[in-house]
Specification:
By secondary structure, the protein is an alpha/beta fold. The chain folds into two domains: 7-152 and 304-364, Rossmann fold; 154-281 and 377-389, Response regulator (Rossmann fold), CATH 3.40.50.2300. Helices cover 39% and strands 16% of the residues. The chain has helices at residues 7-17, 49-68, 88-100, 113-126, 154-167, 181-193, 215-222, 238-248, 264-270, 297-311, 318-337, 342-350; strands at 36-42, 77-83, 106-109, 130-132, 147-149, 172-178, 200-207, 229-232, 255-257, 278-281, 355-356, 361-362, 378-383, 386-389. The termini are far apart.
């Protein structure tokens, strides 16, 4: 069936994964009317639900749309989903089930970096094409044969932020980072590239995922002489708390957030305190503000209109966009390969060139399973409760 491995390989996978075998074993061919199975594991509930919820809604919406238009290579798509609640251990359990029991052809998902990193060894061992929706650079560096991803990396976010800081004359900064997988990863990446931009980090604080007040850390930053701007790598509710505490302490230095908060949910949680915050994000959040000759505009305005028509005005986020790109890249690879056979799909993915998605133009290669350049990021500022595109020439 859909794994398209030999019986011996499949049974070895079942035994190794410790999952009950499906009633019928996979053969070497797939019937024309048999669905192509796309597996996914997402944080639809729990602290990362603001990531997983729009991702799942996007996948469901576009699977339905693709099926209404005739499917892929004449076959319908079937989405097989499990909710991890953001737990990497659950992600591993569900991916084992997707591979050995559900017999999926490809897997997209992993709302968080921790989930994606935890399951990558399974994708490589059992040779399943996988596109992650998470941010950590570690997902694609070093390159793993079967793993790709759609969001910009945390390193690219650091670079975009530091470019903007340098343009504004800020060379001495402080950081306050979440201790989760994403926050730790971006903290380390920013520390690594800061010297390249002439940025000196004068203070470097952290907070835990369950912390409800960051006043102590921010007070330490406020009392550090010379701090001209502050960067907060993190996602979830933590950055909103940081932003509120920041304004309560009346810290004058500009505050930067990461692409981990690139959804309207952050603005809602932070409220008026979010005014003036800057962050790098995909063009999707400012779709209508793009110039008419921007080649990305038709893609992001089209996705935004379709999503908001179904789920409500103002509900679009870059996270749903990552899911859109992941699904479409898999579908395009299957069409190019003329098959859903895993090796053929993987090879077609790796040779993808010129795909214009919500994150930017993707050009995969043997040595690059992200395929985006830093200029795919846009610098945004929150003004009057909404996103505004910052002019790249003026800062």
């Amino acid at each position: 069936m859909t794994l398209k491995h030999t019986r011996r390989t499949f049974m070895a996978a079942v035994a190794a994964l410790g999952v009950a075998a499906a009633a019928s074993l996979p053969g070497n061919a797939q019937a024309a009317d048999e669905p192509i199975k796309i597996g996914t594991f997402l944080s639809v509930t729990g602290p990362a639900s603001f990531l997983g919820d729009p991702e799942l809604k996007t996948l469901q919406m576009y699977v339905d749309k693709i099926n209404a238009e005739g499917g892929v290579n004449g076959q319908p798509l079937e989405l097989v989903h499990y909710d991890t609640g953001g737990d990497p251990n659950k992600a591993v359990t569900f991916v084992k089930r997707l591979i050995a029991q559900d017999e999926v052809d490809a897997i997209v998902g992993g709302s968080t970096s921790g989930e994606s990193l935890a399951v990558m060894p399974l994708m490589e061992r059992f040779e399943v094409p996988f596109i992650s929706f998470a941010g950590s650079k570690k997902i694609v560096d070093p390159v793993q044969a079967w793993t790709f991803k759609t969001p910009h990396t945390d390193t690219m976010a650091c670079e975009k932020i530091f470019e903007d800081m340098k343009k504004r004359g800020f060379t001495q900064i402080a950081m306050i980072s979440g201790t989760g997988g994403f926050g730790q990863s971006m903290q380390a990446e920013c520390q690594g590239v800061a010297p390249d931009y002439g940025i000196e980090i004068l203070a470097d604080e952290t907070y835990g995922p369950k912390d409800t007040d960051m006043t102590a850390q921010l007070t330490s930053i406020k009392n550090t002489p010379g701090v001209q701007a502050v960067l907060n790598p993190g996602f979830g509710q933590g950055p909103a708390i940081v932003t509120k505490n920041y304004r309560q302490l009346q810290i004058d230095a500009p505050l930067y957030q990461s692409h981990g908060v690139a959804s309207k949910k952050f603005i809602e949680l932070a409220g008026d305190a979010a005014e003036g915050v800057r962050l790098p994000a995909a063009a999707l959040l400012v779709a209508e503000q793009l110039s008419d000759d921007d080649p990305q505009k038709p893609v992001v305005t089209g996705y935004k209109a379709a999503y908001e028509e179904k789920h409500g005005e103002g509900s679009v986020s870059t996270f749903g966009g990552h899911a859109y790109d992941g699904l479409m890249l898999i579908v395009d690879a299957m069409k190019t390969a003329g098959s859903s056979e895993p090796q053929a799909v993987r090879d077609a993915l790796e040779n993808t060139k010129g795909y214009m998605g919500t994150a930017g133009e993707v050009n995969f290669s043997e040595n690059d399973h992200l395929g985006l350049t830093p200029d795919a990021f846009r610098m945004l500022e929150i003004r009057n409760g909404d996103w505004v595109l910052v002019d790249d020439t003026t800062g």
